[in-house]
Structures are given as C-alpha cells and as structure tokens.
Task: inverse folding
C-alpha cells in the first residue's frame, strides 16, 4: 500500500514539474515575441521618420518666426530699394498721384538694410493682417492711423522711434532715404510686447513639386500700368525660370547687392480704387479689398485666370482657379500686383526671352 502511495506522489510531482516547465517555456516565448515585435515597431517608426525626413519641404515659408511687413517707397527717387529679393512676398498697390507703394514681407530674414521705408496706407493693413505680420512704416495717413488702432494691428511707426532704429542715409534725398534692419525691428517689437513667433499658415498654398500651368497662356512679357507714369514690367528668363522686374523704364536692382530683382511667382489682382474725400485734397486712395476679384496667376512662363476671395479685412485671401479649386503655387518668392480694375494689363509671349 505504501509503495502505491509513493508512486502516486511521484507521478503527481512529475506532472507538476512538467506543467511548470511548459509554463516557463510558454512565457519565455511570449517575452521573446514581444521583444521581437517591439523591435519591429521601433524599426518601422524609424523607417517612417527617415522617409518623412527625406520628403522635400517648402523653403520659402518655414519656421515659426512672425512675418515682418515693411512699407517700401517706390518713388523714382527711392530707387533702388533694399531687401525685395529677400522678401517671401511683396504686395504692390496704388497710392496717390498714380504712384504705387510696396509692402515687403520677411520671415526669419536677417537684413542689415531694408528700405527706403515709407508711410502707411489703410488698405495695406488688410494684407499685413492676413499674414499675421508686424507692420512697419514711417508715418501714416489719418485713415491708416485710425484703422491701426481700431483693428489692433501690431505696428511700428519709425517716426516714433530713435535714429538707432530708423536712420536716414546720405545717398538719397529726404523723404526717400529712411532705412531700418530686421534686428532693429525685432528689438522694437519686443520692447512693445509684440509676439515675434507665429503659427499662422501661409496665405499661399505652396507646393514642392513644380507647377507648370500646362493649360495656361504664354506669359513671358507682362505689362502692368498703374498709371501713365508708373508702369511695371516683368520679363521671363526661360533658363532661370524666373521673372525680372522693370519699373519706371528701368531694370530693378537691389540697393545693397546690385542683383536684379526677380520673382518666381506673380499674382495680378484687379481692385477698383477711388480718391478719398477726406478734406485734405492730397489725392489719397481707398479700395475695398474684400469680396471676389478677378486676377491671374503667372509662373514658369504661363498664366491662368483666377479668382481672389477675401471675406474680411483680416481674413486670408484664397486664390482659386476658375473651377473653384485653390491654386498650387511654386515654392519661391511672389509679387502680388494689386492694380486698378481698368488697368490695361498685357500678358504676352516673347520670342526673344532668355
């Protein structure tokens, strides 16, 4: 009887031992699988990160630096101007006397000379706002002064700053000789408590793949008359795939570098302007920037008709093709030519380009 009991105990112990060994082997296998699967997951994530890192990114608009919008004088006595080639976007709009003024937008730039800086006009504010930009000017019209306060625009008026931040140069005569720099603008902005970073998206839908406007019309020689005495021309260079700017019958060059002023993209927008009845008889202009306007998108020697939609003064303008799709824009600097609605704009081919 005792032997039988002993055998039963031995058998039970063997069963328990076998079960224990099986359990250990099972859980070790699970551990190994977890480690193996975890390595796969890590490797997959690393591969995805590598793929994303290798994808091309837009160069003209990147980083979290808040844009800076500077009013640039465009009188013939102000030429040449400094900094236009370093701006990711430049707006040109008519002002009094048939003249136009430029607003150059910079993001993350480091420039020792920008200018000549000139005074504010109220309708330029709409485009500073849609770019979430710090608006920089030297003086202002009464309408601009009022709207800056009403709209809460982060602005820097150079007249109110010292000659360390905005200074006059001897190479040009007053009032066409005020200059500033990005460092000085940022110093003033920080002293005023303005934010100097921005998470706002670009107004334009930049893409890294080349936009060629296959169905567009030839656009190698562009003429935009703001008035009889103020005509802008753009001439396409098929080798560089860029447009060279001419204004007031002369090729535009940079004041600092001497390089030709060029653009990758040109947007033309037609907006009706009229003379303000403000009692000062200075011929100041006004316009309604909101609503849907006609225009053109021009790049790589071709042009298409577009619609320019802006629902409020601070809202981003959306540029759409005639089918209602937001247009893709080449990764490069852009001049936005906001011209009188009745301007006789010419978009032509040029057999002698290059």
Result:
């Amino acid at each position: 009887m005792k032997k039988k009991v002993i055998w039963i105990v031995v058998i039970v112990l063997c069963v328990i031992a076998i079960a224990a060994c099986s359990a250990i082997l099972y859980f070790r296998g699970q551990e190994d699988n977890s480690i193996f699967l975890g390595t796969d997951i890590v490797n997959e994530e690393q591969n995805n990160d590598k793929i994303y890192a290798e994808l091309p990114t837009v160069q003209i608009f990147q980083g979290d630096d808040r844009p800076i919008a500077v009013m640039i004088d465009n009188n013939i006595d102000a030429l040449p101007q400094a900094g236009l080639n370093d701006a990711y976007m430049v707006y040109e709009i008519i002002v009094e006397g048939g003249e136009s003024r430029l607003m150059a937008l910079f993001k993350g730039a480091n420039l020792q000379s920008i200018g000549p800086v000139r005074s504010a006009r109220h309708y330029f504010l709409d485009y500073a706002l849609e770019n979430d930009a710090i608006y920089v000017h030297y003086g202002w019209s009464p309408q601009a002064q009022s709207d800056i306060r009403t709209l809460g625009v982060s602005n820097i008026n150079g007249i109110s700053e010292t000659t360390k931040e905005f200074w006059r140069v001897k190479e040009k005569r007053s009032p066409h000789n005020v200059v500033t720099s990005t460092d000085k603008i940022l110093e003033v902005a920080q002293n005023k408590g303005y934010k100097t970073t921005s998470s706002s998206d670009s107004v334009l839908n930049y893409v890294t793949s080349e936009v060629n406007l296959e169905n567009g019309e030839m656009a190698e020689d562009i003429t935009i008359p703001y008035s009889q005495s103020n005509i802008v021309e753009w001439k396409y260079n098929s080798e560089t795939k860029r447009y060279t700017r001419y204004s007031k019958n002369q090729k535009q060059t940079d004041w600092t570098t001497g390089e030709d002023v060029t653009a990758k993209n040109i947007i033309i927008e037609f907006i009706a302007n009229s003379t303000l009845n403000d009692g000062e008889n200075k011929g100041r202009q006004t316009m309604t920037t909101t609503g849907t306007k006609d225009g053109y998108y021009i790049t790589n020697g071709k042009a298409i008709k577009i619609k320019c939609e802006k629902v409020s003064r601070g809202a981003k303008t959306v540029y759409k093709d005639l089918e209602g799709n937001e247009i893709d824009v080449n990764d490069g600097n852009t001049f936005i030519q906001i011209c009188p609605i009745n301007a006789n704009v010419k978009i032509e081919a040029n057999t002698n380009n290059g």
